[in-house]
Design brief:
The chain has 125 residues and is of the alpha+beta class. The chain has two domains: 57 residues, no CATH class; 59 residues, no CATH class. Helix content is 27%, strand content 28%. The protein contains three helices and eight strands. The strands form three sheets. It has a three-stranded antiparallel beta sheet, with helices on one face. Helix 2 runs antiparallel to helix 3. The longest helix has 17 residues. The two termini are 26 Å apart.
């Protein structure tokens, strides 16, 4: 099982923090100092007041309708020179998915992309 979305929302400042990879530590700037860490490897979160934080994770074995909206792929554009953006796999083009599969990556992530192709074929999206 892999974590495809690892987040925590500070209920004091309402900032949602997302950790996308191992050691991707993110903290809000308010006095509660909520944080999230771990990306797809582990889920670690905290705050000064734990009653003011909501942790949320989606795993690769959750309902695929949900997974495909939250599992992302970082992209710097077709030429690799654009600012990094995170695109849900549900929004990737077929060509982009094929390029990622040819390039390679974490096995669990590649399996999600194959599942997305199958989902599109079965649902004609």
């Amino acid at each position: 099982m892999a974590i495809v979305y690892n987040s925590a929302t500070c209920l004091q400042c309402l900032k949602t923090l997302v950790s996308r990879h191992v050691h991707d530590f993110n903290k809000c700037g308010c006095p509660n100092e909520a944080f999230v860490d771990g990306g797809s490897y582990y889920q670690r979160y905290g705050a000064k007041d734990m009653k003011k934080i909501h942790a949320y994770a989606i795993n690769d074995d959750d309902d695929f309708e949900l997974v495909r909206q939250f599992a992302t792929r970082g992209s710097r554009g077709i030429d690799g020179k654009q600012p990094l953006i995170w695109i849900p796999i549900a929004h990737l083009t077929d060509d982009h998915i094929q390029a990622i599969l040819e390039y390679g990556g974490a096995e669990w992530h590649l399996e999600l992309l194959k599942k997305e192709i199958k989902y599109r074929h079965e649902n004609r999206t």
